[in-house]
Amino acid sequence: MLDEKEYITNLSLNNHDIKFYKTNNNIFMRKDLILRSNVKGIIIMNDKIITKINYNNDFIYLPDINYTSDKDLLTAIINREQYIELLANNCSDKREINDILSKKNLPFKCINNTHITNILNNM
Asked: Cβ neighbours of residue 78 under 8 Å, at least 6 residues apart?
């Protein structure tokens, strides 16, 4: 069972209610009472959010974000999701697209999603 030490924030969108927790330097998300997982590609070190994507056996690092509020964490998660979606949009091979999209954490599209923009603006 996951040791959810510090509740961070909640993201509710498209009938999905996702709760985020922090344990040491790792971020975990809980989609319901059963589904829990580590947030892929994001860690917190020394009050900085470090975001990376494993792509073609290399790591792509997105710019670090200072971790001062819950909004910073959601911004990092959503930026990573949008970058992954952009990578997938630039591929033509369906297998490669599926491989890239499997690296996402959130079960919904983040590019051009007005709900995501509204959530971040109202935090």
From this structure: 106, 110, 116, 120
Statement: residue 59 has pLDDT above 70: yes
pLDDT at 4: 54
Tell me how far CA of residue 47 lies from CA of 44, 55, 58, 59, 70, in angstroms: 6, 26, 25, 21, 12
How many Cβ atoms are within 10 Å of 30's Cβ, its own excluded?
18
d(CA 88, CA 78): 15
Which residues, in sequence order, are CB contacts of 61 under 8 Å at separation 6+? 50, 51, 52
Question: Residue 36 in 3-state DSSP?
Answer: strand
**Each residue of 9-42: pLDDT tens digit?**
777 776 778 888 888 778 888 877 676 788 999 9
pTM of the model: 0.85
